[in-house]
Each structure stands twice: as C-alpha cells, then as structure tokens.
Design a protein that fits this description.
- The chain is of the alpha/beta class.
- It is 36% helix and 23% strand.
- It folds into three domains: 3-249, Glutamine Phosphoribosylpyrophosphate, subunit 1, domain 1 (4-Layer Sandwich), CATH 3.60.20; 252-455, 3-Layer(aba) Sandwich (Rossmann fold); 457-604, 3-Layer(aba) Sandwich (Rossmann fold), CATH 3.40.50.
- Helix 15 runs parallel beside helix 20.
- The protein is globular and about 75 Å long.
- It starts with a strand and ends in an 18-residue tail after the last helix.
- 57% of the residues are buried.
- Bound molecules: 5-amino-5-deoxy-1-O-phosphono-D-mannitol (M6R).
C-alpha cells in the first residue's frame, strides 16, 4: 500500500509528482504530501485527505512549487492514524533529510527507544520517521554519505519497504531501496523518475528499471543509476526494460469511473488473455509456462491454489475446473492462512499463486514458503514484472491491462480465463476429456467475449434493479457448483464499494443457518443458470420465496421458471457450465457499481481499502 513518486532532472518536479500521485492514488488515499528542493530550500507540504486536498492546500496557501527535484507520497495508514503529522514525507531531526516510505518497519519501536535515548525527538506516530532518523544517526556517527547511511540503517531494520530518501546537502541524487514493496525507476534523458509503478512516468519515458528485493540504488543526475545489494554491498548491473504500457490504458476514457471502464473492457481483456494461446482451428492451447514444465505439472500429486480476495475467488472457480476436467485434486487456500499454518507441502505439489497486482504481501510470503519446501510454483498475475511474477518458477500473465479501480473486475474474469486454458491443456494431455469435449470447450471459450458484450447490454435494466435494492442493509448471494465462487465475489463487490453487508453462500448451505435471516427485507441474489444444478437451485429459490425473501435471479436467456418465482431476473447468454462464471459475474459487478454510485460512494477508492495490499 501507499504510492511513492520522485523526480530528479531539469523539469519542474511539482506537476510531475502531483500527477504521479494521482495515478498512484489507488494504492492508498488517506493522506498525501510532497517535498521539493528549489536549489536552496527543502520545502514540504502534506495533509490528511486525498491528493486533490494536497493540491488545494498548496494552491490556497500560495506555497512555492518550484524545484527540479522532489519526492511525493500518497498514504494508506499503518502506523498512526491518517492526519497531517503522520503524512509523508518525513524530515529527519536536522531537517536535512527527507523520506517517503511504502511498507512497515516492524522493529521500529525498539529503534525509536534507542534514538530517543540519544536525544532524537519524534512528532509523528509513524515507523517512517524512525527510519529517517536512524539513517541520520548512522550518517553522523559513521561519517558516511547518504547512500552508505541508508544501507547501514536498512541492515538494522526488520520489515518491508520501498523508500526514497533525499539529502539537501546532496541535491543531485535520490537514494531508493526496496524489500517487499515495489519500486520502479524511469530512465529518461538527463532525468529520472521514481515510482511504485510505471504509470507516473509513462509520458516521459518507456525505459524502466524494476528494483529487486534487497536492492538499493543511488539515482544521480549526471552519473545515472548505481544499484547495490543492501546486504553485501555487491554491485548489480541495471536491467532496463522497455515498457509496453500506454497512457490511454490508464485514463478513464470517457467513463465516470475506472471500475465501470474496466467492467466494459472485459470482452477485449478476455480476448487479450487467450490471444496467441487458444487456437480453435488447430485444436491447440499454447502456454509457454505450462509447455516448458508440463511433466512436473502433470505429475503433481495435487495443486494448491494460494491467493487473496477476488483472486482467491478465481482460485475457487479453478478448483471446479481442474478437478472436473483434468481430474487433479485441488486445494484453495487464503495465502494469509497458508503462510502461517505450517502446511504439509512436498516436492510433488504444484502451487498456483494468483494475484492481479503481483505484489500482495501474503501471497508473496506464501510463495516463498512453498518454494522453500520444494514445491513448483506457477504464477497467474496481471502486472508484468511484478514481484510475484518474478518470484514464481513459471507463470502466465492475464494481459488484462492496468486495473485501477480498487474493486477487481476484469482481473477476475481474465484470471478465470487463464486458469480455464491451463485446465483444458492439462486435461487434454492427461486424456481426462475426449477430443470432442476439448474442442467444444475451445469453441465456447472463443465465443465468451461476444457473450460478455451481450451481458453488458443489460446495464439499463440492472440500474433499475439497483435502484430497487440500493437501501438494503443486508444481502445474500447464492450459487452452486461453478457459481458458488461467483456468489462470494458478488457479495465482496457489494461490500467493498457500497458498504452494504453481504454474504455469499452455496445455495444448498442456506438451510443450515442463513435461511434464518430471510424475511421481506432481505434481497437474495441467486445465480440460477440452466447449466449447473438448475432444478436444485430452483428449489432453493422456492424456499426463499416461502419465507418472503426478495429474489433476484441471474438466469440463462429465455428462462421462464425462475422468472415466475423471482421479483427480478437478469439474463445472461447460455454457455457450457464451466464457463458460466465468466458471464454470471458481469451483472453482479454492474449491480454493485450502480448501487455504490446511487449511494454516492467513492467507487474507485472505497474507504479503508487500497488496490495492492503490500502489508500483512
Ligand atoms: O492483487 P491481488 O489480486 O493479489 O489482490 C488480492 C486482493 O487484495 C484483491 O482481490 C481485493 O480483494 C480486491 N479489492 C477485490 O475487489
């Protein structure tokens, strides 16, 4: 969480940093701040609230915004409540050094105690202010330059960080370091950019260096980027990548919200996911990460899926597909539980780690644990070059394009698409499905983008359903089989952006408890597509109806039975059972979106959340 930006060059740093912070606001948005050096003074401005509040404050107070070097931060609070004082950047006691930090310094309390004994004072409750004073202390006591001081200090801390540190006595450089949180350096002509991801510098340069964990860099105006290992001081040759991202991909493009844009991007995103991999004519699926490790994966005793949030829901869908088609036993685990429960993992296990951002701290830690026990780890990530993509043995990108809305939408459907391709490929290799079933799946998968487009056409109707239920205090989401994870995902979408309490359940589990909640106030969203336990779900609907619950059925086009029972129905096109989640999830995303808009919630930046959860 938290977004960091920095600039050093010939341009005015302020507009670059400000715009960069706006692009990184998905990472945290409870306070923001900027430090600028104008050749003489180091000026700092920060405030509780969003980047726009910071901008207003700077304009209102007529603060100077000149300077060719600076750093900025948008925060998701960990240590200390969101307020002006706890906002970053933080000065050192001398006022000469300034820092921005994304991550957590776990042993900050003991370091703080020592520093206080040595006469340091602290104005904030943050771990970051402790780190900058530790750096200052090392710099003075050891009589070393900033880079060395940062290195020595970081060898004393436990935790995670992406930091940028500036020393007003050394204004031609910014020192950065990374462990567990992402950090990219944009390399321009006589200028450098620092950011949590590449979006803040896309219009200036397409050349980027992604720091690896336990690396630090001195970014120096005339001399370029010097990278070292934090632990042993060894030099690392910078690897400059050419970015494939475009500016258009990270703007709203006429939509009111990123979430809505990303919902509507799904037909193209799904196509991009299978493009070059799915060949219906030749009856082939090509995936380099699978092809190159086929034996290992086919001989797995079981597959363990690890993920968090929406990605975990995609993992649950994968459990159905892998077991159903490829007959490989699958377990799906919350990464946060897996990493701490001493799981039994052997060299015969294959772990699939799913993550949109590729930076989720729990998933990353779970991967490291699985690797240490000898498992083969395969990543399914969206963000190219992310920590998880690099940490896994092999993988497949979802190619969904940047997802900026905090609520995951296209990441979910593209993850399911990748996982379906893998399951089909393994099923074919193992011979657990016939040629004709395999071919039928390929044909149906190729039709999915068109069908998603059709499902999106229900938008106006969905808006009227949203209007009817927007004031509900609680909602239930029910589904069976492949659509049980979709029920969980539908409930999560509603919770996170509209703050309405919602629960997802397997439809048949309802009678073991949740049915007690049902009365005339309770909207129940039931996924009741023709393929997949249809009659049984209809019986569940009857049970809700007889207890006066309000029923909103997500049904297959042309369905008549549920229409007679439900208060509302939303139709999706027909497809084979294993692919229904790619369609049934669409109306649930739109419903949550419209309800949140009607309730005047901040759809793209819901309270308390951040896009990538880089802390435990
Ligand atoms: O980047 P990841 O896929 O690893 O993120 C996992 C979750 O934090 C994420 O899916 C979260 O649940 C979303 N906000 C849900 O919309």
């Amino acid at each position: 969480m938290c977004g960091i930006v920095g600039y050093i060059g010939k341009k005015e740093a302020y507009p670059i940093i400000l715009e960069g912070l706006k692009r990184l606001e998905y990472r945290g948005y409870d306070s923001a701040g900027i430090a600028l050096y104008d050749g003489e003074n180091l000026k700092l401005s920060k405030t509780k609230g969003k980047v726009s509040d910071l901008e207003n404050k700077i304009t209102k107070d007529k603060q100077l915004t000149n300077g060719n070097v600076g750093i900025g931060h948008t925060r998701w609070a960990t240590h200390g409540v969101p307020n002006d004082v706890n906002s970053h950047p933080h000065y050192s006691n001398s006022g000469e050094l300034v820092i921005i930090h994304n991550g957590i310094i776990e042993n900050y309390a003991s370091i703080k105690k020592e520093l206080i004994n040595r006469g340091y004072t602290f104005s904030s409750d943050t771990d970051t202010e402790v780190l900058i004073n530790l750096i200052e202390d090392v710099k003075k006591n050891e009589n070393v330059k900033l880079g060395k001081a940062v290195q020595i200090a970081l060898n004393q801390v436990i935790g995670a960080y992406a930091i940028a540190v500036f020393d007003k006595n050394k204004p031609d450089e910014i020192v950065v370091a990374k462990l567990g949180s992402p950090l990219a350096i944009g390399v321009g002509e006589d200028e450098f950019f620092i950011a949590s991801d590449a979006t803040p510098f896309l219009e200036y340069t397409k050349k980027a260096i992604y720091l690896e964990d336990e690396e630090m860099a001195i970014v120096r105006l005339k001399k370029g980027v010097k990278i070292r290992k934090i632990k042993d001081d060894s030099l690392v040759a910078p690897y400059i990548q050419e970015l494939q991202l475009n500016l258009e991909q990270i703007v709203k493009g006429g939509y009111d919200h990123f979430m809505l844009k990303e919902i509507h991007e799904q037909p193209e995103a799904i196509k991009d996911t299978y493009r070059g991999r799915l060949n219906v004519k030749e009856g082939l699926i090509r995936m380099a990460g699978i092809d190159d490790n086929l034996e290992r994966i086919l001989n797995a005793n079981r597959i363990i899926v690890i993920a968090c949030g929406t990605s975990w829901h995609a993992g649950l869908v994968a459990e159905y597909i892998f077991e159903d088609l490829a007959r490989i036993p699958v377990e799906v685990e919350y990464a946060s539980e897996f990493r701490y429960r001493n799981p039994v993992i052997t060299e015969k296990d294959v772990v699939i780690a799913i993550s949109q951002s590729g930076e989720t701290a729990d998933t990353l830690a779970a991967i490291k644990l699985a690797k240490s026990k000898g498992a083969f780890v395969f990543g399914v990530c969206n963000v190219v070059g992310s920590s998880i993509a690099r940490e896994t043995h092999a993988g497949a990108y979802t190619h969904a394009g940047p997802e900026i809305g905090v609520a995951s939408t296209k990441a979910f459907t593209t993850q399911i698409t990748v996982l379906t391709l893998i399951a089909l490929k393994l099923a074919k290799e193992k011979g657990t499905i016939s040629k004709s079933v395999f071919q039928h799946h390929l044909q149906e998968l190729e039709l999915i983008p068109g069908k998603v487009e059709k499902a999106l056409l229900q938008d106006e109707h969905i808006k009227t359903v949203a209007e009817t239920y927007k004031d509900a205090k609680n909602c239930l989401y029910l589904g069976r089989g492949y659509n049980f994870p979709v029920a969980l995902e539908g409930a999560l979408k509603l919770k996170e952006i509209s703050y309405i309490h919602a629960e997802g359940y397997p439809a048949a589990e309802m009678k073991h408890g949740p049915i007690a909640l049902i009365d005339e106030q309770m909207p129940v969203f039931v996924i009741a597509t023709k393929k997949g336990h249809y009659e049984k779900v209809v019986s569940n609907i009857q049970e809700i109806k007889s207890r006066k619950g309000k029923i909103i059925g997500i049904v297959t086009e042309g369905d008549e039975d549920v229409k007679h029972l439900a208060d509302h129905v939303i139709e999706v096109p027909d497809t084979i059972e294993s692919l229904t989640p790619l369609l049934t999830t669409i109306p649930l995303q739109l419903l949550s979106y419209h309800i949140a808009v009607m309730l005047d919630k901040n759809v793209d930046q819901p309270r308390n959340l951040a896009k990538s959860v880089t802390v435990e």
